[in-house]
Write a structure and sequence with these properties.
Number of domains of chain A: 2
Largest sheet of chain A: 9 strands, mixed
Number of strands of chain A: 17
Number of helices of chain A: 11
Shape of chain B: globular
Low-confidence stretches of chain B: 78-92
CATH class of chain B: Alpha Beta
Largest interface: A-B, 53 and 59 residues
Number of domains of chain B: 1
Strand content of chain A: 15-25%
Structural class of chain B: alpha/beta
Oligomer: heterodimer
Strand order of the largest sheet of chain A: 2-1-15-14-13-3-4-11-12
Shape of chain A: elongated
Mean pLDDT of chain B: 95
Mean pLDDT of chain A: 91
Strand content of chain B: 15-25%
CATH class of the largest domain in chain A: Alpha Beta
Chain lengths: 369, 544
């Protein structure tokens, strides 16, 4: 089966690698984007960025940086999925919970909560703020579930009112019924180990900051932690890898001989649409996802087959799916850690890391020491 | 490949050597003077000091906690906010690559990351795999984990505990075991806000003392060379020297290592109820032959505290500067990342600075006091050269003391201490002793057969300048630094121990993970082939 294409025509891997290296070598501002790959792929991609002075970004940076911005401007109290699973007696869900995987891991917590009900004789509760339409039905019946507010757009007001009630301050307005707000405020304060859950895709930074503030307030008298759900395509694994290799998260440029991070300047969509980049390495090893930007920069694609590009990439190498075609280390949402994922359908498909290593080796000049 | 380092002053206290002479290296190892052979390369060390590569036993350089600190503090990176060169973290080496290079440039060749929770071991090893040049190791943290607390609660046998410790060491690929505020993180999850040595974790009814003693016995019984590495309770609190004294007394006749003792050297004397208690603490260490300690020296400037002592960090979050922090109730242990600015004109910070130096100078045996800043908690590791200079010169100390708040000086004994470290004592404290403490028989010295990790320094009267930039550094016999600059990149290894255990523990752990977390225990493993470096590990033998 074909593995590589140049301008849409089947090519050998070696010639595709050589064509990719030539494009990169001629580029004045390369961009490595998408970055949907395992830790090995990210390590190779960042090393390539260092070599070529490229900018690095991930397809889910928006969601990652929303949470990160709250952390790095005020702070956050976190827990892990495992500790939540083993210990939580109260869950606070905020807004819509997106994504099948996320609903799955949330349901796992619900189920565990239900299983442990009565073990310590205390009530196990779930409060769900502004869940939106269908999602609220997903909670199992066995646990006490309280909805506070309905529509996701009301979440900031409901959250502010709830935080005020937890602090013992009066609230006005009709964000949610006073009775339910008070019930929730009392319930959260009665938690022995509460866990707040949200999808970073669904909330803006100010709402996340308000949630983190509420959690901090609750810890004055009891224990409560945040467990933000994680965006897909190994966004958190790539974040961690960027962190240790550059000191910075994604949306970091390496063009000036050191890492500089700027969430606006190095946003890949902005870079493409403004024409500031003249060569893109687009990586989507998990899903064969094509980029969504408006613009057709010369592209080296490292994705699965059939990624549905709007225009043919100059070079396309079909890479294996991490944890499917080859063993991978990635951020695993069930454990909240970097973990090894064995290949479920081992194949000879080249890994992202290996493809990038070959491109790196084909670049002109000596690798830096 | 035969290399000769010619005519330097070789200071090698482990082999009682302090004399001008040659050092010979063949294929990565130190050898005796070879009869008649001509060296392939000769480096002139005339007038220079030749020591083994230095070993740092306690420096937070990798793992989730460290990486979270990076992500919490983008402004520390020079690109985000250009900083004056004199600001410590402008030189700290924030990425893994910088970490390896900055350490090597100072002549350090082995560094231990001392605080990795078992579930984050793979993460830590991936980071260490990207730390160039130096060798490294992790200590795995136990003592707040449900499994161990359950074993103790059920009065399980010493053998059961040892098997579990051995299993954890192997899964996490660690060199030793650390315990952090034993039981404190577990108690904090049950809303306990203060936790001392004889307090009990509520749900388990197990005291901190019992946890420490059980782990100390297990580590000793397994023959792990490095003694249990203890982060005591009550870190940072006035009057906490008594906690440290209690812990020292509990060591009894078995080895015990106390981490960053400076943070436990506080009394309650003086107008502000905060004073140095370094003198009684040093006296207790001097009297307890099986106890070793590292200092955790504070230096002034902006830094970030990175600790698995979640209870302490939670209580310290209001002192965060800048005002932001991360607290994690993690699997088993916890974590807290709290930025902090140690200021020279701050009474408390000045006392902390003095306490560290007092401990260095009052603990008599340089084989039992270890050189650390608890990087980056007391100061970034790039501050080491200045601390060497302070230890070696009472005049330099006097200059610093003159700039500190007089009320701080009034509650310490530092102004009265005249001791000055010799180069030999520095070599003992940073080479010979840590090699021995970690069970690294072929490191920390320059005898035949030792790994050819060698640092060559100019014999500069300015000791800070001398130790900041080694003239030459060899790693495994290969020249990696010249004139304080890395000239050659290579990848080091992570040092591990693998004590024997009963195979039944593997089945028990599998069942435990299914029951406790609803997960396979596979995710705690660190497979060698996913680290992406050839031969990423080196096994250190246990003591039989």
């Amino acid at each position: 089966m074909e593995q590589a294409w140049i301008a849409g025509k089947p090519a050998t891997l070696d010639s595709a690698v050589a064509a990719a290296a030539k494009l990169l070598a001629a580029s004045r501002q390369p961009l490595i984007a998408g970055l949907g790959t395992d830790v090995a792929g990210a390590r190779a991609a960042i090393a390539l960025a260092e070599r070529t002075g490229a900018i690095i970004d991930h397809m889910n940076s928006d969601a990652v940086l929303r949470g990160l911005d709250v952390m790095r401007s005020s702070g956050v109290m976190l827990t892990t999925p495992s500790e939540a699973y083993a210990r939580a007696d109260t869950l606070l869900l905020a807004g819509e919970i997106f994504g099948a995987g996320e609903i799955g891991s949330t349901k796992r917590l619900f189920d565990q909560l239900a299983r442990r009900q009565g073990q310590h004789g205390t009530a196990r509760r779930v409060y769900w703020l502004c869940p939106g339409g269908e999602l609220a039905k997903r909670a199992p019946n066995e646990i006490s579930l309280t909805f506070v507010g309905k529509q996701p757009r009301a979440l900031p007001a409901v959250l502010a009112a709830l935080r005020a009630r937890v602090a013992g301050r009066p609230t006005t307005g009709a964000a949610a019924s006073q009775k339910i707000l008070d019930e929730a405020a009392t319930g959260l304060q009665a938690a022995q180990f509460g866990v707040a859950i949200w999808s970073p895709q669904a909330l803006d930074a100010l709402t996340i900051e308000m949630l983190c503030g509420l959690i901090s307030d609750l810890n004055a008298t009891t224990r409560f932690c945040a467990l933000p759900l994680t965006p897909g395509d190994n966004a958190i694994g790539v974040l961690q890898t960027c962190g240790w290799m550059t000191g910075m998260p994604m949306r970091t440029g390496l063009g000036r001989g050191f890492a500089e991070h700027d969430p606006w300047l190095f946003d890949s969509t902005r870079l493409v649409e403004s024409g500031e980049t003249d060569c893109v390495v687009w990586i989507s090893a998990y899903r064969a996802q094509a980029p969504r930007w408006r613009g057709l920069p010369p592209t080296i694609a490292l994705t699965g087959r059939d990624a549905g590009f709007r225009s043919r990439p100059r070079v396309h190498i079909a890479v294996g799916r991490p944890g499917v075609d080859h063993i991978a280390v990635e951020h695993v949402s069930l454990t909240g850690t970097l973990a090894t994922v064995e290949a479920t359908q081992p194949s000879g498909a080249i890994s992202t890391a290996e493809a990038i290593r070959r491109i790196c080796a084909a670049l002109p000049g000596e690798p830096p020491c | 490949m035969l290399t000769r380092i010619a005519n330097g002053r070789v200071i090698d206290p482990a082999n009682n050597r302090d004399a001008v002479g040659d050092l010979w290296i063949r294929d990565g190892r130190i050898i005796e003077v070879p009869p008649g052979d001509r060296p392939d390369a000769t480096y002139d060390a005339t007038g220079k000091i030749v020591m083994a590569g230095a070993i740092d036993i306690h420096s937070h350089i990798a793992g989730w906690n460290v990486n979270t600190a990076r992500l919490l503090l983008p402004e520390y990176h020079r690109a985000a906010a250009p900083r004056p060169i004199a600001t410590p973290l402008s030189k700290a080496g924030w990425s893994t690559f910088e970490t390896g290079c900055r350490y090597a440039e100072m002549g350090f060749t082995t560094v231990v990351e001392p605080a990795v929770s078992p579930h984050y071991a793979l993460h830590a090893h991936l980071e260490l795999a990207d730390v160039p040049i130096i060798d490294k190791a992790i200590l795995v943290i136990l003592g707040n984990d449900d499994y161990l607390l359950r074993l103790l609660q059920a009065n399980e046998s010493d053998a059961a505990i040892s098997d579990y410790v051995a299993w954890t060491l192997e899964m996490s690929r660690s060199l030793g075991v650390k315990v952090v505020n034993a039981g404190g993180a577990a108690a904090f999850k049950e809303n306990v806000r203060a936790f001392s040595f004889d307090d009990v974790v509520p749900s388990y009814g197990v005291s901190s003392r019992r946890i420490v003693k059980a782990l100390q016995h297990a580590v000793t019984a397994l023959g792990v060379p490095h003694p249990l590495h203890v982060h005591c309770n009550n870190l940072g609190l006035a009057g906490n020297f008594e906690t440290a004294l209690t812990t020292i007394a509990a060591a009894e006749d078995l080895p015990l290592h106390l981490a960053h003792l400076q943070f436990y050297g506080y009394g309650k004397e003086g107008d502000r109820g905060f004073s140095s208690a370094a003198a009684p603490l040093a006296a207790a260490v001097n009297a307890a032959n099986t106890v070793t300690a590292d200092v955790g020296q504070v230096m002034f400037g902006q830094t970030v505290t990175i600790s698995s002592d979640v209870l302490r960090q939670f209580n310290a979050r209001k002192q965060a500067s800048p005002r932001k922090w991360v607290i994690l109730d993690s699997d088993a242990n916890g974590a807290g990342i709290v930025p902090y600015d140690y200021r020279r004109n701050n009474f408390y910070n000045a006392v902390q600075w003095a306490v560290g130096l007092e401990l260095f100078l009052l603990i008599e045996d340089p084989r039992r006091v270890f050189f650390t800043t608890d990087h980056p908690n007391g100061a970034p590791f790039t501050a080491y050269p200045e601390i060497f200079a302070l230890l070696m010169s009472r005049e330099r100390r006097a200059q610093w003391l003159a700039e500190l708040p007089p009320e701080a000086l009034a509650v310490t004994t530092l102004p009265a201490i005249t001791r000055e470290y010799s180069l030999g004592e520095i070599a003992t404290m940073t080479r010979a002793a840590p090699g021995r403490l970690l069970g690294l028989r072929d490191r920390g010295h320059l005898g035949a057969g030792a790994v050819a990790d060698v640092a060559v320094y100019e014999d500069d009267a300015d000791r800070a300048k001398m130790f900041r930039a080694a003239a030459l550094v060899f790693k495994d016999g290969e020249l990696v630094v010249r004139d304080g600059r890395v000239t050659q990149h290579r990848w080091g290894r992570a040092l591990t121990v693998r004590p024997e255990r009963d195979a039944a523990i593997d089945r028990r752990m599998k069942a435990y993970y299914e029951d406790r977390y609803g997960l396979s225990d596979d995710f705690v493993k660190v497979p060698e082939h996913v680290l992406g470096r050839p031969d990423p590990f080196e096994r250190v033998p246990c003591v039989s």
